[in-house]
Amino acid sequence: MTTGVRRRMGVEERRRQLIGVALELFSQRSPDDVSIDEIASAAGISRPLVYHYFPGKLSLYEAALKRAADDLADRFSEPHEGPLGARLHKVMGRFFDFVDEHGPGFSALMRGGPAVPAGEASAVNTASTTTALIDSVRQAAYEQILEHLGISEPPARLELVVRSWISLAEATALIWLDGRRIPRPELEMQLVHDFAALTAVSAAYDAEMADVLRRLLADEPADGPFGDLIGRLTALAPQPS
Amino acid sequence: MTTGVRRRMGVEERRRQLIGVALELFSQRSPDDVSIDEIASAAGISRPLVYHYFPGKLSLYEAALKRAADDLADRFSEPHEGPLGARLHKVMGRFFDFVDEHGPGFSALMRGGPAVPAGEASAVNTASTTTALIDSVRQAAYEQILEHLGISEPPARLELVVRSWISLAEATALIWLDGRRIPRPELEMQLVHDFAALTAVSAAYDAEMADVLRRLLADEPADGPFGDLIGRLTALAPQPS
After folding, report:
1. Is B53 part of any domain?
2. Which residues of chain B does A213 touch, with a Cβ-Cβ cutoff of 8 Å?
3. Ranges for the HTH tetR-type domain (chains A, B) (predicted)?
């Protein structure tokens, strides 16, 4: 059966298949622990044939990473309908789906990139390739959020809030992966609340940000993520003495 | 004069001097752009003599990084006196001092570590050394915060809030360095407020975290960082309709 499949595949199809197989393996274990032999075996082809399509593990890793980055960026897109809190909440669900599917690979990547076999000449290029890919996904997330807010030229404080919140979301996902000690749905909602809270902190000192906050809260139903949060926060705040 | 200094220095003293000179150069420009020749010249010694003390630029970079990490971790220590918000605010001032002093080097390091000359065999070890150093500083920050909160066995949600806030502080500093478009004092205060806000979000859904929040707010004067924030947030919250 393997031979049958092999005969039929063209170059691009075979490359796509290998990338898919590699991405699955790189997602499930730290990329350092995945060998070309394993990838060959999972793809049902010989080791030399893998090298025919990819010069080495690094180039296959980069291709797999590129596919994962495109996949993640795609998950950020969300129709511009309904309250902003609910939209962000849906995207958070898809973000955690991605993190869940690619857990060990995501951790290895975000905790400083894959260790590369000592002396491998392309180590540096890989480090800059992975950094560029991570940055492109962050940029996609940033632009999506601005589009949903309807803001094309963000003031510096808004850029700071959005970009630093993206870092917060990454950190939250990484910490969650390390033991999964907090239920995922709670964190998906918490990150939506965090976004509102960080915006509110910035808004407390800046008229432009207060405007962004009003826009964020404008269509919120009282029982939506933000309305809910404000009620709970108000209840927690100490009474003036 | 240089010769006079050179004659008097012992091995350890010379190493310390070279680390100091290198740290200053690595802080002011991306480490990739700093050459051993420059370090030698700034230290007033010959290039071969630098190699006598350090086998290469990487080992000197690692030593400089270690010194910077120790320096940063030292700045987290703050007497256990007075309201928590004011203590955190003082530490934020010292954190931004550090970021300010080491700007370009800090950016290069946090944005994926220094690029290493292609083919240099110790590239991998350096990547794991820098990751380990960064992690040790994050751990020091984490432990300091828990000590100030008086909590030795943090629940998972508190660990998440503290560690993800540390990531937020790093991201905020990096974004600030890129153009310095927001006044530093504002960000020092904003991060204190962010800490309270993230704790409050988590507290809204968890009794244990509500307890941490109460502890955080217990000794706060009404005009302290947290009291001030709560007042402003309450004013921003939309009135129930």
Report:
1. yes
2. 236
3. 12-72
From chain A, pick out residues whose CB is under 8 angstroms from the CB of B108: none
Asked if the Cβ–Cβ distance from B233 to A233 is below 8 Å, we say yes
* Domain at B215, CATH number: 1.10.357.10
**Does A144 map to a domain?**
yes
State how many domains chain B has.
Answer: 1
Strands (DSSP E) contained in chain A are none
Q: Which one of A117, A127, A181 has the shortest CB-CB distance to B156?
A: A181
Whether B171 maps to a domain, the answer reads yes
Chain A residues with CB under 8 Å of B164 CB are 168, 171-172, 175
Residues B103, B24: Cα–Cα separation, whole Å? 11
Distance from the Cα of A111 to chain B's closest Cα (Å) equals: 8
Is residue A95 within 8 Å of residue A173, measured between CB atoms? yes
Encode pLDDT of A124-141 as tens digits: 566 778 889 999 999 999
Domain encompassing residue A133: 67-236
pLDDT in tens, B198-239: 998 998 778 899 888 888 887 788 777 776 676 666 665 555
How far apart, in whole angstroms, are the C-alpha atoms of residue B111 and residue B130?
A: 12
d(CA B160, CA B163): 5
